[in-house]
């Protein structure tokens, strides 16, 4: 058997030249995986004028940046991007290839996996390297790809034992972004882009992107409200508490659906995944889809009138009672302590 | 003279356009039957807190109904044909009948024991080969994502195998002309408009359109539509019924749901089902609540005061 390549590749996603956070999160994780595998971490950077971005990946431990830089590649387009990566993987056969589970990553990765006949695991929340026994065969150093499925009701560990390249998409915000103190002295490797007629089958006519002003992921303190707040007026209490604590406001899907708060502040499976220092869950039942987005918070306080509410199962501190009375009490006590 | 030539050219292009419009656009829509993961009630929980999947009701993946609706809207506007296909067990014929109730012209059940345990790669192999066999399509539609596997991979993987472009996360079809379609799609933090040559594979998100209700007349007509497997069941124990005759009869009445197996599609067995699936489920854990590990705080001023002191001390607050 030919000697296996042990490299870990990360697709570095950029929008209008700005890197997506998830790419740095993946590089941070990829660095550890590469170490476990005894391989090299490499970044794959496609775009226009992306040299600085490629160099930034060295700060996260990439020893090589594979760069395809061309004016036709400024905006992500399925056909040229997938064609480029298909060819790179076919030729160089990395052991692991990671993509963010963003709209771009979920458009691109399956196309590449289909062409290279690689296994692709979707939406991972954790990745590990381990020896595995599967169907009475021993495999060394496989990638354990851990992901929720079935609407979040189960957590599955997926392996791709018999392929050269194990591919995965990874949720945004679940891996920690960990830059190195010192840059790695990495190498830039430029790959030439050769246009192909298939690249022109789909043309970009217009694009509108709003910079996401809300950055829940970076907030150290989050105060979240659920449907149990009952009215928009009551929900103001959540905002008041968040302001007082210097935190951000968030909500459940039920709160979003009720119009208490905007979707860009929804925490959970179909919203944002957060891991703040403190998460205060007010009148939130703690459905699995919500917990998926907040259970890794450092400390969780749950306020709920129902002592049986599932949210208490992930909480560090539980307060049973009416949130509409308890939040003002919390605000008052805290204000007194500030004086 | 000059004028004459011009008119001639014009006429010809009009004729071409009329011809294309008369033919319309053909769509193949990939639909999947899924367990209803959103409504997990007490009855489907096992004693150990895990989900009893067999007890979950099987439903039509919602985004796939949206996909059918989009295909039907194209048909309503430009003419053409809508064909629904699913790869699944025999009972998946339920959703194919529902496609017929909505207005689909034809339906295909792709079913074989050897397809069991397929991951997204093996699924896209089988579906792409079925689509090649059906042929003659301008559009292939799919849902963005199925609610059980939740991967959103089957659409793009199928497009790659068909060597056609794709537009995922589609919200709206803005227009079709001269062999190209303009589509508005969602992107991270906004939207974009793309123009693609046909044929094209489109995956749709649930807000794109709302699926039309069943037409009573079509329900009456198609509730008797049957797959080959279902017809075979009818002939069992009835020596007067011959399967070939029965099938011809259903075909003639327009009530036959095409049924294709691995052999019908001349597929490579090593690329189907569990053998053709590079990903393997190594371990599954049900999410069970930890519970009981938290500290109870009295909802009083004193209780809250002590909690805040604790948080300040731990540098969580302040
Ligand atoms: C595919 C899918 C994806 C989903 N994605 C998400 C997601 O990303 N994020 C998300 O949050 N949800 C998501 N959901 C929805 C999720 O299943 C729940 O429905 C939702 O989280 C419930 O929100 P809630 O806790 O605010 O409301 P409820 O479940 O209605 O809970 C309200 C709670 O408030 C308590 N309460 C009522 N009055 C008071 C009071 N006065 N004081 C204190 N407590 C009170 C009640 O005891 C109850 O526990 C998803 C669902 C599906 C199927
Ligand atoms: C717990 C668990 C985890 C899994 N994880 C993975 C994984 O990470 N990677 C992987 O490759 N497989 C995985 N699978 C297998 C995967 O769920 C199946 O291959 C499934 O048949 C298709 O994937 P999906 O449900 O994710 O579909 P999606 O890719 O989400 O479906 C998108 C669209 O494709 C079309 N479509 C999908 N399946 C069919 C079909 N059978 N017939 C017609 N149209 C269809 C529909 O239009 C659908 O809306 C997992 C399965 C389980 C049970």
Helix-strand category of chain B: alpha/beta
Distance between the termini of chain A: 72 Å
Write the CATH homologous superfamily of the largest domain in chain A. HUPs
How is the main sheet of chain B built? 10 strands, mixed
- Across the major sheet of chain B, the strand order is 9-8-7-10-6-1-4-5-12-11
Counting DSSP E segments of at least 2 residues, the number of strands of chain B comes to: 14
Q: What is the chain-wise order of helices and strands of chain B?
A: HEEEHEHEHEHEEEEHEHHEEEH
Strand runs of chain A, count: 18
Radius of gyration of chain A: 22 Å
The portion of residues forming beta strands of chain B comes to 15-25%
Question: What does this 3D model show about the protein?
Answer:
The complex is a heterodimer of chains A (339) and B (318). With 339 residues, chain A is of the alpha/beta class. Helices cover 27% and strands 30% of the residues of chain A. Chain A has two domains: 8-201, HUPs (Rossmann fold, 3-Layer(aba) Sandwich), CATH 3.40.50.620; 216-337, 3-Layer(aba) Sandwich (Rossmann fold). Chain A has helices at 21-37, 51-56, 78-92, 103-116, 232-245, 253-257, 288-291, 323-338, and strands at 8-12, 14-15, 18-19, 41-47, 64-69, 96-100, 119-124, 126-134, 137-149, 154-159, 166-170, 187-190, 202-209, 221-225, 248-251, 278-282, 299-304, 317-320. In chain A, the strands form four sheets. Chain A has a seven-stranded parallel beta sheet with strand order 7-11-6-1-4-5-12, sandwiched between helices. Chain A has a five-stranded parallel beta sheet with strand order 15-14-16-17-18. In chain A, β4, α2 (51-56) and β5 form a beta-alpha-beta unit. The longest helix of chain A is centred in the N-terminal third of the chain and has 17 residues, at 21-37. The radius of gyration of chain B is 26 Å and the shape is globular. In chain B, the strands form two sheets. Chain B has a ten-stranded mixed beta sheet with strand order 9-8-7-10-6-1-4-5-12-11, with helices on both faces. A two-stranded antiparallel sheet of chain B has the order 2-3. In chain B, 35% of the residues lie in helices and 24% in strands. Chain B is of the alpha/beta class and 318 residues long. In chain B, a hairpin with a 2-residue loop joins β8 (180-187) and β9. The chains are: A alpha/beta (339), B alpha/beta (318). At the A-B interface, α3, α4, β7, β9 and β10 of A face α4, α5, β7, β8 and β9 of B. Bound molecules: flavin-adenine dinucleotide (FAD) (2 copies). One flavin-adenine dinucleotide sits between chains B (30-32, 61, 63-64, 86-88, 118-121, 123, 127, 142-143, 145-146, 148-155, 279, 281) and A (120-122, 147, 149-150, 154, 156, 158).
């Amino acid at each position: 058997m030919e000697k296996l390549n042990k490299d870990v590749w990360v697709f570095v996603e950029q929008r209008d030249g700005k890197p997506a956070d998830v790419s740095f999160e993946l590089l941070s994780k990829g660095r550890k995986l590469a170490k476990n595998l005894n391989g090299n971490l490499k970044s794959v950077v496609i775009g226009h004028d992306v040299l600085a971005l490629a160099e930034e990946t060295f700060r996260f431990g990439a020893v090589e940046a594979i760069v395809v830089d061309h004016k036709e590649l400024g905006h992500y387009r399925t056909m040229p991007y997938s064609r480029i990566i298909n060819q790179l993987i076919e030729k160089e056969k990395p052991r692991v290839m990671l993509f963010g589970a963003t709209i771009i990553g979920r458009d691109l990765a399956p196309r590449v996996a289909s062409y290279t006949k690689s296994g692709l695991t979707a939406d991972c929340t954790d990745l590990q390297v381990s020896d595995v026994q599967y169907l009475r065969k021993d495999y060394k150093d496989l990638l354990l790809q851990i992901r929720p499925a079935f609407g979040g009701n189960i957590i599955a560990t997926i392996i791709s034992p018999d392929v050269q390249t194990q591919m995965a998409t990874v949720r945004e915000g679940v891996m920690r972004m960990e830059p190195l103190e010192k840059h790695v002295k990495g190498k830039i490797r430029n790959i030439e882009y050769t246009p192909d007629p298939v690249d022109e089958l789909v043309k970009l006519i217009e694009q509108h992107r709003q910079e996401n002003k809300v950055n829940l992921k970076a907030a150290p303190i989050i105060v979240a409200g659920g449907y149990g707040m009952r009215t928009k007026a009551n929900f103001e209490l959540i905002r008041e508490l968040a302001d007082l604590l210097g935190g951000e406001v968030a909500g459940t899907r039920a709160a979003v659906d009720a119009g208490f708060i905007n979707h860009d502040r929804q925490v959970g499976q179909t919203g944002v995944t957060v891991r703040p220092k403190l998460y205060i869950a007010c009148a939130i039942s703690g459905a699995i889809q919500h917990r998926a987005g907040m259970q890794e918070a450092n400390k969780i306080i749950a306020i709920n009138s129902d002592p049986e509410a599932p949210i208490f199962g992930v909480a560090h501190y539980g307060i049973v009672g009416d949130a509409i009375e308890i939040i003002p009490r919390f605000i008052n006590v805290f204000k007194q302590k500030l004086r | 003279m000059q004028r004459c030539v011009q008119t001639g050219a014009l006429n010809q292009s009009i004729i071409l356009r009329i011809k294309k419009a008369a033919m319309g656009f053909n769509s193949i829509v990939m639909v999947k039957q899924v367990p209803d993961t959103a409504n997990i009630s007490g009855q489907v929980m096992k004693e150990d807190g895990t989900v009893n999947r067999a007890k979950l009701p099987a439903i039509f993946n919602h985004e796939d109904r949206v996909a059918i609706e989009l295909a039907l809207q194209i048909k309503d506007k430009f003419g053409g044909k809508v064909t629904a296909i699913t790869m699944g067990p025999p009972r998946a014929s339920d959703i194919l009948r529902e496609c017929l109730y909505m207005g689909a012209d034809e339906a295909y059940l792709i079913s074989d024991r050897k397809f069991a345990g397929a991951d997204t790669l093996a699924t896209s192999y089988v579906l792409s080969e079925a689509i090649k066999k059906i042929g003659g399509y301008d559009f292939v539609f799919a849902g963005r994502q199925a609610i059980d596997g939740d991967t959103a991979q089957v659409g793009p993987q199928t497009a790659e195998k068909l060597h056609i472009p794709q537009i995922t996360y589609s919200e709206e079809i803005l227009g079709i002309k001269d062999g190209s379609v303009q589509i508005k799609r969602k992107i991270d933090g906004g939207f974009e408009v793309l123009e693609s040559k046909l044929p094209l594979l489109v995956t749709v998100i649930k807000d794109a359109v709302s699926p039309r209700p069943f037409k009573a007349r079509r329900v009456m007509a198609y509730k008797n539509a049957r797959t080959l497997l279902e017809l075979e069941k009818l002939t069992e124990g009835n020596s007067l019924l011959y399967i070939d005759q029965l099938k011809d009869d259903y075909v003639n009445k327009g009530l036959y749901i095409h049924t294709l197996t691995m052999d019908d599609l001349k597929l490579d067995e090593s690329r189907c089902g569990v053998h053709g699936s590079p990903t393997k489920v190594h371990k599954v854990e049900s999410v069970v609540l930890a519970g009981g590990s938290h500290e109870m705080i009295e909802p009083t001023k004193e209780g809250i005061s002590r909690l805040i002191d604790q948080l300040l001390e731990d540098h969580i607050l302040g």
